[in-house]
Amino acid sequence: MNHRTALGALHIGALFFGLTGVFGKLAASASPAIIVFGRAAFAVLALALFASLTGPGWQRLSGQDVRRLLLGGMLLTGHWVSFFVAVKVGGVAIATLGFASFPAFTVILEGLLFRERIRRNEAMLVLLVSIGLMLVTPAFDLASQATGGLLWALLSGLLFALLSLTNRAGSGRLPAVQAALWQNLVVGLCLLAFAAPGLGEVASRDWLWIALLGIFCTGVAHSLFVASLAVIKARTAAVVFGMEPVYGIAVAWVVFAETPTLRMLLGGALIIFAIVLSSRLAAEQPPRQRPAAEGT
């Protein structure tokens, strides 16, 4: 993979991650628990295939690795379920933009858990994302579907921030694909009891969307992300993945006629600008050994 193909792979991965909410909404007859269970199952198959083709040289799991993967899998379960609840309640655009708040949560939690000083550009990120989220919400009314969807999306972003910090604590120990495969197995086990009773009620067409969600938006997207990092700098990857909400909102606009308001577009643009700017500034400062962020 050269620089040009790696950059193309990154954009394809960002597009697939951006389609997460679209496929979740298309699977209309499936509950969030079933969607996440199916996504994890298909993702395991895709990641296992990728691992068999690339031969990542997997590491033997220690007791600490097992505990960290279990915690990461449970956080991933909560993150995905809350995200798809947000999609069902508030729509793809609000769910995607609400989830995009996770870098701000990461900054705050990193300062609290790792006792690291919050830099000026990180404080600016939190401020800009907060303003963007206020613009995204038409009116803060708990009875409103838009507000409810945004709150679920914020929970999804918070859980993903915790997952990122969990992965940071174990970064470098396990290959990324190996960690992702085991975490997806944990997701499937966590939701098996909740999903099993309703599996037969899911329409066959919806299983197609769930399969695409698991294979392309999880397995293929993650594999492209990992493979491209061998050529592309992490700062470039972070900027490209800032396009994830743009892809998701654009496709939802076409498929579901979810026309965003001017206020929502301004809020979304502010959130995306804050994430991209913060990523570029962070790359110019001494690293904290933080793993590059992945999409939904």
What is the approximate shape?
globular
C-alpha-based Rg, rounded:
18 Å
Number of domains: 1
Measure the end-to-end span: 24 Å
| Strand segment tally | 0
Give the rounded overall mean pLDDT. 82
Number of helices: 13
- State which percent range the strand residues make up: under 5%
Q: What can be said about the biggest beta sheet?
A: none
Uncertain segments are: 287-293
State the order of secondary-structure elements, H for helix, E for strand. Answer: HHHHHHHHHHHHH
Structural class: mainly alpha
* DSSP helix fraction: over 70%
Describe it.
The two termini are 24 Å apart. The protein has one domain (3-283). The longest helix is centred in the N-terminal third of the chain and has 28 residues, at 63-90. Mean pLDDT is 82; it is low at 287-293. By secondary structure, it is an all-alpha fold. Helix 3 crosses helix 4 (63-90). It contains 13 helices and no strands.
Topology record:
Layout: H1 3-18, H2 20-26, H3 32-54, H4 63-90, H5 92-99, H6 102-113, H7 120-136, H8 145-169, H9 176-195, H10 204-228, H11 234-241, H12 244-256, H13 262-283
Helix pairs in contact: 1-10, 1-12, 2-4, 2-10, 3-4, 3-9, 3-10, 4-5, 4-8, 4-9, 5-8, 5-12, 6-7, 6-8, 7-13, 11-13
